[in-house]
Amino acid sequence: MFYHLPIPYPDELLYSVIARYCTYLSIHGSNITRAMFETKSTKLRADLPCRLEKVSEKTFSLWRLSSNDILNKLTLFPYYEPFLPQKSAVKKIAGLLYGDSATTGSIGVNSFRVKSPQFLRFCAQCKNLDLAAYGETYWHRTHQLPGVLVCPEHGIHLINTSALVLPKQSQYADATIITANATDHSFPLTANELSMAKLVAAHCQKLLMKNNPRWKSQNLSATYRKAAIQRGYTKIPGILSPSKFQSAFMEFYEERFLEMIGINVNSRVNWVNTIFHQNYKQQVHPLEHVLIQVFLEHKSVVTSFQPFGPGPWKCPNPYGQHDDPFPIKKIATRTMRSSEVVARAKCTCGFFFNFQKTAEDDNQLPIVKHIWSYGPTWKRNIETLAAAGMSFHDIAKVMSINTDAARKLTDFESKLENRKRKDIEQLRQEWLHVLQKQSITQARKNNYGLYQYLLKHDHEWMMGQRQPRQKKVDWERRDTEWSQLLEDTAMRIASEIPVRRVAKSVIVKEACLNLRIFTELHHLPKCESVINRLSESYTSYRRRQEEAKFH
User: Is the pLDDT of residue 273 over 90?
Assistant: First the structure.
């Protein structure tokens, strides 16, 4: 059946659209919920409704929105999405599109450390603008976000209504009716709290609108840790001090404000510290991420966290030739037990060294403390001097290195390599002999030293001896078997009396398959074809139901 729902307004909740529709037609919400979502439940949560695929089927001809579009444009899901683990995000999205309300708890909505809004809220100025523009108002998504106390557009306190975010009854609350006599009973904010509330609200709005490029990272914990170190919250250079960070964090926000936006400051879990360690089992609420991000954005970077300057740096190799005057772009620093900071750098010319300071007159020129690898430029220069008749002793004096180092960088080094090559040939044969009697796993376990030596000194050859991994799942075979099973099931359902709708989810369930198949259809083209071909729309089902009455 086609539902002529009103066109959604900017930043409107799906719940709000259906509420307006019920008001226009003066009908009860329970009938609409059952029919639109094809569910037994008559209640619809305002923030994260499920079974959106059903809504898309019934509104697509009017809205032209897929279920994913509805999820991202008419619910609060984009607020939670950036912080979902990538491995489980697909399953959680599938749960919202095809599943039930149990999915919402697994995406961080019910975090015990953050209180989500209990009632739907509105901004008085937004309401007046809506009435002037549309003749009615509606529930704005941004106003319902956890942590948002003020309207991001107007900076005034949001007003709570009597409409529940998780309704206990099946009737929808129309914003125009509910907000008509609503009064503001909230506590007044101090000037500092209002300023903080505006910052948090603006950041939450950016998340909802997917406009937060600064903090897009697969490992946010490492990004936060680096940013905190850059702002001086360290025990020793390069090592984060969680206690310093937490002290500054609490001073920045204050307990009263954190409690007002829903943060449980007395929680047994110290999330301010744990957020710096990536742990997918420890759920972190989006509001907690927002507070960390806002705090870091409003603290300036200190220069002391970079004892060697921000870079890039010059190469101290006297024989290196570079097109770029600053070829060293990155360095790795380490704090020793003596609290001294040592940097390790490798140039594109092959010069690999440690340093503890830079030149007094040039802070971009490292002073070499220890050389790990001289690189090919030194070798070429030594060979040139040796070809000119100089002894290794004289070469060492000219180049300011010891005689042994000069020898190793010339013929002595090449002879050593030749000897290594002969040894490796012998070790290769030994490894191949082992593989004839044992599997690669057993050979690696029983001949660990041989395996590690060849892996280090003859890596490419060792990689070539590995047997290709077999596919864990034979998708082609599974696709063939399941497609036939789905087709037989669909035909059986279609022939049943009384008539049942041959819906996609019904076909899969009746075939005793898991609904997760919908997330794997890119591996199962035949199954996808069968499901799309044999499933029927609600209109087709009703027509077939009517025809069955006359036969």
Answer: no
CA pair distance 524, 536, nearest whole angstrom: 20
Name the pLDDT band for 100 (thresholds 50, 70, 90).
Answer: low
Structure tokens at 415: 């002879």
Cβ-based neighbour number of residue 57 at 10 Å:
20
DSSP string, 285-308: -HHHHHHHHHHHHTSPPPGGG-TT
Q: Are 95 and 514 in contact (CB under 8 A)?
A: no
How far apart, in whole angstroms, are the C-alpha atoms of residue 425 and residue 459? 13
Residues in the chain: 551
Measured CA to CA, the distance from residue 175 to residue 61 in angstroms comes to 26
Share of the chain above pLDDT 90, in %: 34
Q: Please state the rounded mean pLDDT for residues 352-375.
A: 88
Q: How far apart are CA 513 and CA 45, in angstroms?
A: 28
The upper half-sphere exposure of residue 76, i.e. CA atoms within 13 Å in the direction of its Cβ, equals: 30
The per-residue pLDDT of the chain, averaged, comes to 85
Query: Mean per-residue pLDDT for 21-35?
Result: 87
The confidence score (pLDDT) of residue 330 equals: 87
487-493 CB contacts, 8 Å cutoff, 24+ apart: 487/530, 487/534, 490/530, 490/534, 490/535, 491/534
In 360-484, where do the E strands start and end? 362-373
DSSP 167: -
pLDDT, one tens digit per residue, over 44-91 is 889 989 889 999 999 998 999 999 999 999 999 999 988 888 777 888
101/173 Cα distance (integer angstroms): 20
Q: Which residues contact 207 (CB under 8 A, 6 or more apart)?
A: 78, 79, 82, 286, 290
- As a whole number of angstroms, the distance between CA 152 and CA 144 comes to 12
Give yes or no for a cis peptide into 312 (omega within 30° of 0).
yes
